[in-house]
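ARCHIVE CARD
CATEGORY: sequence design from structure
SOURCE FIELD: tokenized fold
FIELD CONTENT:
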């Protein structure tokens, strides 16, 4: 698979998503989704399953029957937030399927044993750990500023 996303840009987007998933917009979601799909396709090369994460990307992966035109023999489709949750371990495959957040059809479309991806999972954990360590420092500086303002009154 040819990379379309600069790996560093993908990691930065994934880091940004990790610290504010709800606030992530297109400039963060698009490279994060493309990066993780590319990593998945590299880890599990093939063309038996088409992974679709509209509107950002699609990739073919998993060894087996390859298709060249029309509907592939197996399709997995989900939204960006769900895909990133699955790729990073925030969301379990079985739960996502049960909740209707993933549409999977065809042979080899069960990706439960292939997710999460270790690299993205590590990026997200590191980003969240770092944000958690920085938060008390920020909270303390706000408290210090508040105390200083009260002293000036």
């Amino acid at each position: 698979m040819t990379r379309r996303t600069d790996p560093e840009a993908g990691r930065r987007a994934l880091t940004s998503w990790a610290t504010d998933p709800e606030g992530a917009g297109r400039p963060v979601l698009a490279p994060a989704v493309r990066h993780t799909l590319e990593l998945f396709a590299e880890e599990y090369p093939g063309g038996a399953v088409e992974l679709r994460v509209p509107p950002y990307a699609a990739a073919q992966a998993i060894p087996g029957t390859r298709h060249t035109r029309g509907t592939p023999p197996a399709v997995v489709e989900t939204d960006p937030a769900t895909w990133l949750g699955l790729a990073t371990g925030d969301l379990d495959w079985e739960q996502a399927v049960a909740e209707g957040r993933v549409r999977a059809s065809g042979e080899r479309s069960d990706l439960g044993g292939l997710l999460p991806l270790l690299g993205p999972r590590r990026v997200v954990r590191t980003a969240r750990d770092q944000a958690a360590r920085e938060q008390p420092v920020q909270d303390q500086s706000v408290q210090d500023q508040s105390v200083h303002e009260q002293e000036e009154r």
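CARD ANNOTATION: The longest helix spans residues 118-152. The two ends are 64 Å apart (CA to CA).
SHELF: design records, drawer C
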